[in-house]
Design brief:
The protein has about 80 residues and is mainly alpha-helical. The radius of gyration is 22 Å and the shape is elongated. The mean pLDDT is about 80.
Length: about 80
């Protein structure tokens, strides 16, 4: 969908390129994605604070998932 200013939604752009995956703009978008991931990994390896922040977030999610699975009932009605 194109708005009045002449910009398109992300979904519209991707739908167009899915039909022609060899399009140079699509290839460029994939390359930009690879560069962004590489930059993130380089920052992660360099910055100890970033590593700690991500580790803390993962620990919170693991705790949440552990508490969630501990409280589930099995099919026979018993709590695991």
């Amino acid at each position: 969908m194109v708005d009045a200013v002449g910009t398109a939604s992300t979904e519209a752009i991707l739908r167009r390129f899915i039909r022609n995956a060899s399009h140079p703009i699509y290839a460029a978008m994939l390359e930009v994605d690879r560069v962004q991931k590489t930059i993130f990994v380089a920052r992660y390896l360099r910055l100890r604070d970033l590593q700690r922040g991500i580790e803390e977030g993962l620990n919170v999610m693991e705790s949440f998932n552990g508490a969630n699975s501990a409280g589930r009932c099995t099919g026979s009605g018993t709590v695991r």
